[in-house]
Amino acid sequence: MPPKASKGTLLTVAEAAEVADVAESTIRRWVSKGKIEAVEGDEGMQVSTDELMRVGALKKTPKNAARPQADDKPETPPPPKKTDPEVMRQDLLKAQRERDEATRARDELKELFHTTLRALPPGDELDKVRRAERDARKELTAALEEKARLEVENERLAGQNKALHRELQRLRDSVADAARPWWKKIMG
């Protein structure tokens, strides 16, 4: 293990394994192969969160993120906001434009809602329309069922009609054969 210490929160092997979502043996293997650096601390081998982030293994936020390393420098506060009057005026104008756009969008949605609401019939008329639609669906379903039944009946009658035509032709042939003289029947 290299003696060099990394910046960031120091974690034990168990904690590092938990936040990296891997086994403790994997953390030890990474250290032994030099993939990540570790230091010997009061609690044994310790790995920095920066090292885990460097190799893309930091999956969770460590529970003890408030345990800084001794040579960590305190974070520098963010730079103060610009107080230039021109910048402030531009920010104000931008905020006013955004507010006006939001107000226009709200008014358009209100108008659309009220237009849609006016287009709907009153409640009792709406119920009448729904009942009429339901009745029309029932009638359509009944008509389609009747059409299907009639088509089946039509096919059955068409088959019977063909059979009757064949029987009629057979009877005609039989009558014509019976009307022939006996000697023509024998002679062919």
Describe what this molecule looks like in 3D.
With 188 residues, this protein is mainly α. Among the domains are: 10-54; 83-119. The protein has six helices and three strands; from the N terminus they run βααββαααα. The longest helix is centred in the C-terminal third of the chain and has 57 residues, at 123-179. The chain is elongated, with a radius of gyration of 46 Å. It starts with 9 loop residues before the first strand and ends with a helix.
Percentage of residues in strands = 5-15%
Percent helix among the residues? 55-70%
Q: Please, what is the average pLDDT?
A: 81
**Low-pLDDT regions:** 66-70
Numbering strands along the chain, what is their spatial order in the largest sheet? 1-3-2
Distance between the termini: 120 Å
For the biggest sheet, the summary is: 3 strands, antiparallel
Cα-based radius of gyration, to the nearest Å: 46 Å
Morphology call: elongated
Number of helices: 6
